[in-house]
Amino acid sequence: MKAIPSLPAARVSLGRSNLSVSPVCLGTMTFGEQVGQDEAHAILDRALAAGVNFIDTAEMYAVPARAETCGATESIIGEWFARRPGARQQVVLATKVAGPSRNMAWIRDGASDLKPEHIVAACEASLKRLQTDVIDLYQIHWPNRNAPAFGALYFDPAKETENSTIEAQLRAMETLVRDGKVRHVGLSNETPWGVMAFLREAERHGLPRVETVQNPYALTSRAVDNGLDEVLWREQVSLLAYSPLAFGALTGKYDGPGLDADQPELGRLARFESMRLQRWARGEAVSVAAKYNALARAHGLTPTQLALAFCYRNWRVASTIIGVTSVAQLDECLAAWPVTLSDELNQAIDALRWQHRDPAQ
């Protein structure tokens, strides 16, 4: 068998918590759609053997979201725990409660408000699917309020609605922490205002403090650098960077053929129509990704190596979440760990960003 790429033994502390994780996290949203259970378990085995001790999932996975596969990813992971005695004790497990409905009527009947009782019930359902007694990091998947996310560029006051308050959300988290079902809490797809509001309410009322923010961070999507990075650094909240390969656009696979629906073997942006409606598939996002891919090749790197090294070596990032559909893809991502970027290459990266900004934001 091919040698397993390995990560350094050093761990990263998340926020001010006692959670100690590998600098690479295994994202699992493909499990249950593109990846069947047997292959998913092989990927999990390989990741653990390579030194990855951090697994991230969500109640709404697999992706693309469908009623038929909602919760499937957590169930696959739970079955892995059941079949691998001792594995649960070796990993830091993160999952997420979905925010207000984004056209997913199968989650809480499409509720437009994430209420405290929803958070508690969702956590208990995740615990059952994951076949565990506790979730190490429980995250709110997207804001329970009017806020720009998932490619929306602007805040629009006209879209304001009444939703459960941040204090109410944190009190639900407090219940879960008190009952021993959750160890620490985090956010995802959050804004600088949102992070500060959660921190303020936690301090004001003695509620659980958010330790992490899971946001997109990639060569073509660097909104984190526009102020959120200062918030996270000053407040000691850790960034979990997701989609570092821009849904495959930063691997080079779409440079030539583009997102031709007749070539689904290329990846999810080509395979699933719903994925082609997302920010990663915008025409400018794919074309600018090709420029970064060309930059990588010009410097003797693969596009994947450049994209991952950009995150792996970035002071802003605590752990980079990689999503794969095979053991071979996992090995490729882990093998990029030793890659470093020269000052010249980093300057070229910033020059491209200055010219094109963040087309997949």
From TrEMBL:
<keyword id="KW-0560">Oxidoreductase</keyword>
<feature type="domain" description="NADP-dependent oxidoreductase">
    <location>
        <begin position="24"/>
        <end position="352"/>
    </location>
</feature>
<dbReference type="InterPro" id="IPR036812">
    <property type="entry name" value="NAD(P)_OxRdtase_dom_sf"/>
</dbReference>
<protein>
    <submittedName>
        <fullName>Aldo/keto reductase</fullName>
    </submittedName>
</protein>
<dbReference type="InterPro" id="IPR023210">
    <property type="entry name" value="NADP_OxRdtase_dom"/>
</dbReference>
<dbReference type="GO" id="GO:0016491">
    <property type="term" value="F:oxidoreductase activity"/>
</dbReference>
<dbReference type="InterPro" id="IPR050523">
    <property type="entry name" value="AKR_Detox_Biosynth"/>
</dbReference>
<dbReference type="Pfam" id="PF00248">
    <property type="entry name" value="Aldo_ket_red"/>
</dbReference>
